[in-house]
Input
Amino acid sequence: MPDRVLGGGVKTRVGIVGAGPAGLLLSHLLHLDGIDSVVIESRSRQEIEATIRAGVLEQGTVDLLKSAGVGERMQREGFVHEGIYLRFGGRTHRIDFPSLTGGRSIMVYAQHEVIKDLVAARLAAGGKILFEVKDAAVYDLDTQAPKIRFHHQGTVQELECDFIAGCDGFHGITRPSIPSRARHEFTRVYPFGWFGILVEAPPSTDELIYAHHERGFALVSTRSPQIQRLYLQCDPDDELRNWPDSRIWDELHARLATGEGWKLAEGRIFQKGIIAMRSFVVEPMRYGRLFLAGDAAHIVPPTGAKGLNLAAADVRVLSKALAAFYSSGDEEALKGYSAKALKRVWRAEHFSWWMTSMLHRFHDESAFHHRLQLSELEYVASSRAKAQTLAENYVGLPLD
Ligand code: FAD
Ligand code: DHB
Output
């Protein structure tokens, strides 16, 4: 449906702030239901397509991307993993997903590749994404005609919408536009971060390794047969210059050491970054005609690999609710959006907190706490019930 020009402004059904996974996928799902939208994004296309972030897609996210017609390259280039390894006390234990979850698995496929696929699909279908907008603001949220105002290519523009989707991530402008009396926020900040690197090296492992060690957590992931993704727990206020390559390798070798003959393949480190870790939820995920989705509404620490997947789950629920509204005028699903999304969000919040707490070293950790972590890891490795709890949350609970 073409945009309608009204009084100098542009009108669309759904105005979407943010071209991350949440905003782009929402725009695409709405398009499949014949609902027009405009996405505004503060960064350039190049920048969003090059930002290194998540890598693990739940089975439900994979199925959603496939059914939306944007899974073709993912199926060709992504890696299906049927388990993960937990490494602690110098030994490695495999959690087998299919046998514990009725045949489910995960896909390792980088978030920026998902972004590239979604941008390409939107533009090929004539979708409207405005890059490099500045000073976006949302208002009239509690009316039938909420608006987004922003600067684009040297002019001030106003987009009049039926609904606004706040998909602008944790540091965006939509959540703070909700009056503070109308939102309840829950936060937990962790006393550590992750130091992430990309390395030119062949895989050291066929599946991800999550390692518990008294020097701190480490994670071995992958991107391609030539590029590996590795993380190690660090001080959240640390700086990249304190981490010469030799120190990174020393720490990784120490934390991943095992007497099982396993070796970490080294290579040229070509990207480094430090990630802070927090848990955060805002309730409700709606104010008037503004709906929040993805990191704009919630953050999880990365240990459970849930952030991108939650963003996808949110917009699936939201797109269906909007489709129901436009096909029949029925607002019930829109009214239920926040509660439905939050149910999944809190499950993922708990899982991510649990994985984080079980695997990281805490500053003030007592020997008692360390023993409890080891006992819990032993239990996951030896009890089918506990392993199943990990597996079914990791591959993702069914979307409906
Ligand atoms: P974002 O990706 O943050 O997108 C928001 C977009 O809005 C951005 O492009 C931003 O530029 C734009 N924006 C912000 N403000 C404005 C504004 N004022 N105007 C216009 N545009 C604006 N999750 C997983 O599921 N699996 C993983 O393995 C995983 N690993 C991770 C590893 C790392 C290192 C990090 C940092 C995160 C990881 N995550 C993972 C989390 C995941 O990356 C996020 O949850 C995901 O990006 C959320 O998507 P989103 O679309 O909600 O927000
Ligand atoms: C990756 C990121 C995660 O947060 C995780 O738990 C597993 C893998 C990754 O970037 O590959």
In short: The pocket of 3,4-dihydroxybenzoic acid (ligand 2) is lined by residues 54-56, 208, 219, 221, 229, 302-303, 305 (CB under 6 Å). DSSP finds eleven helices and 20 strands in the chain.
